[in-house]
Amino acid sequence: MSGLPVEAIQALSDEYPKPVDVHFQYGTAGFRTLGALLDSVLFRVGILAGLRSKKLDGKVIGVMVTASHNPEPDNGVKLVDPRGEMLESSWEAHATTLANAPDTPAFLSALESLVKATKIDLSKPARVVYARDTRPSGGALVFALENGFKAIGVEARNAGVTTTPILHYLVKAMNTKGTKDEYGDDSEEGYMQKLSGAFKKLVAGKAPITPLLIDCANGVGALAGAVLAEHLGETLPIILENGATTTPGALNDQCGADFVKTQQKLPPSLLSILKPGQRACSLDGDADRLIYFYLDERSQFHMLDGDKIAALVAAFIVALVKAAGLEGKINVGVVQTAYANGASTKYLVERLPVKCVPTGVKHLHHAAEHYDVGVYFEANGHGTVLFSPETQGKLASYQPLTPAQSTALGHLKNLVQLINQTVGDALSDMLLVEVVLAHKSYSAEEWDSLYSDKPNRLVKVVVRDRNIFKTEDAERRLVSPPGLQAKIEELVRRYNGGRSFVRPSGTEDVVRVYAEATVKAQADELAFRVAGLVYDETGGDPVKRPKEFL
Ligand code: G16
């Protein structure tokens, strides 16, 4: 026996039986499915988080209860490692194994195997900080999680209802507290002060910023956004919209970053509110994604997605590095995924090193760590900028030769404070965008004109088993089901400027199809044709075949 508190675990575990016939998977962003199915998973994750902390000598682990952009009835949970980054991938498999143990004896035996295989010293302390978003199912799920903590003996801190990025910040702040690398005060107030303080320094002396409208997706971003707005005061006037956090069914419904990105249109609730030329942005349900948009003078909608944010920010940082006299000493690179618009990739590769990796923050984050300054953004608005520890050291010790170099160096140092480097953070990214726009005196329209997006379309296909879809080459090619990739390529060849790929979602039970072409109608047609291929190839019910699939 490994010394696990078997009786305590057993007694509580029996209260959280695993639903029969459900297979759980720790996917792109943890476990995610209908909230009503997740009690047993949350209890088990409570224990897993405790073990992860023990394995890491009592370092604080984070647990976030959220399903982010998914519909309100969904919920989910993800673990955060001590530096505020996503759970180490080898532990994702352990999480999946534990979640799928059919009953308490099997769960206990899986725990024993984990403790043995990973050589966990159970006498070590376990410390966890946890939070949840505003979903109605969150309270009960947190209760199950707390019982998991109780079963294994975790010193747990409840961070309440907050955004995913604030939880990541807290993990890093708690683990660096009192060290020379202290990330910030380990409280929401500390987070707000850090961001707003850096923002105020960065826009000092710039022309007053016009009001920014924020669509909060009726989620937790509305709560954090209101606090941030108070800290920012006049420096960034904010108008919060879609803040109905307690209205049943409102979360992510017809609003939020995922709606804007996938529908490529204004949330209906903003139709009579947004004025032509005014800047606006959407957060998602847990405020880790950001999409900007505006209406031109003819009231035409224009979207500025994660790719546009990457282009804006990367160019700004490159210019600052040069102005500081650090060109050649600090290299800036960009990380994207296959969803990046072809025009954005073209724009970026002409200026910087660019890498393409599979979907999922963890892949982008790790790739970005290889650059001195790594800018990573998914087209869906997820992203941040990482300054490597060596780069931060260089910035700290560098002696500028001129006042202009000194100013640029100061801006770079303040950016390090402004940007939440633990994970993509909609509020921090929004401040970053506002800083760049203020420095460049850009309107949303001028920013938009950096390059023109290629027309594109994203379609979801519901299939019987999305696990049969396997990809390679950073998800740009399918290797399974056999033969399907060749058919997709055959179709793509018929479209001018065509590009398309297919991959299984890691957060929803669907397969995603992306297509681009030179003309919008052709991008739509290509996407629906590929979706039709995917549907038919996988034996979809002909009666349920969506009529738009060609
Ligand atoms: C999560 C991940 C993102 C990913 C998105 C969609 O976002 O953190 O990296 O792009 O899911 O993933 P998939 O296409 O596999 O469903 P969020 O905002 O839902 O946590």
From TrEMBL:
Question: What binding details are noted for the cofactor?
Answer: Binds 1 Mg(2+) ion per subunit.
Q: Which cofactor does it need?
A: Mg(2+)
What residue stretches are annotated with the Alpha-D-phosphohexomutase alpha/beta/alpha domain?
61-96, 119-178
The record's listing under InterPro entries reads: A-D-PHexomutase_a/b/a-I, A-D-PHexomutase_a/b/a-I/II/III, A-D-PHexomutase_C, A-D-PHexomutase_C_sf, A-D-PHexomutase_CS, AMG1_II, AMG1_III, PAGM
Tell me the enzyme class: isomerase
What does the entry list as the binding residues for substrate?
378-380, 503-507, 512
Question: What is the name of this protein?
Answer: Phosphoacetylglucosamine mutase
Q: From what organism does this protein derive?
A: Neolentinus lepideus HHB14362 ss-1
State the organism's lineage.
Eukaryota, Fungi, Dikarya, Basidiomycota, Agaricomycotina
